[in-house]
Amino acid sequence: MHGYTQDKDNYLKRLARIEGQVRGLARMIEEDKYCIDILTQVSAVTKGLQAVSLRLLDEHLKHCVAEALAEGGQNADEKVKEASDAIARLVKS
After folding, report:
1. How far apart are CA 20 and CA 64, in angstroms?
2. Beta-carbon neighbour count of residue 68 at 10 Å?
3. pTM: predicted TM-score of the whole model, two decimal places
4. 46-85 pLDDT, tens digit each
5. Which residues have a Cβ under 8 Å from the Cβ of 51 and sit 6 or more positions away?
6. d(C-alpha 30, C-alpha 16), whole Å
7. Domains of the chain, first to last
């Protein structure tokens, strides 16, 4: 079981909302809306995805990484590296 499993419905709702925002962005471009209005919506979508990412990362650290650290060994090292790599990707985006 993954750390996010208990909040799965909330994640799916948030992602559905973001999906709707992305469809709205496409519609705005199709309708030749003002570029600043489109950029404002892009910012909202980006912040929504960042919020999901941070929550997933938090769940991963609390569940997967903590569990691996408690067990120790090579798996613990791999989980810590995995989390570090994920953080690096998020910081770059």
Report:
1. 31
2. 19
3. 0.82
4. 999 999 999 999 999 999 999 999 999 999 999 999 999 9
5. 14
6. 21
7. 7-92 (1.20.58.1000)
Residue that is written with structure tokens 């609390």 in the block: 62
- pLDDT greater than 80 at residue 39: yes
Instruction: Give the C-alpha separation, 47 to 51, whole Å.
Output: 6
Dist. CA 81–CA 70, nearest whole Å: 16
Quick one: tokens of 29?
A: 């471009």
Return the closest-CA partner of residue 56 out of 78, 83, 19.
83
Distance CA 15, CA 58 (A): 17
Residue with tokens 């995995």: 82
Question: Which two three-digit tokens encode residue 65?
Answer: 């990484």
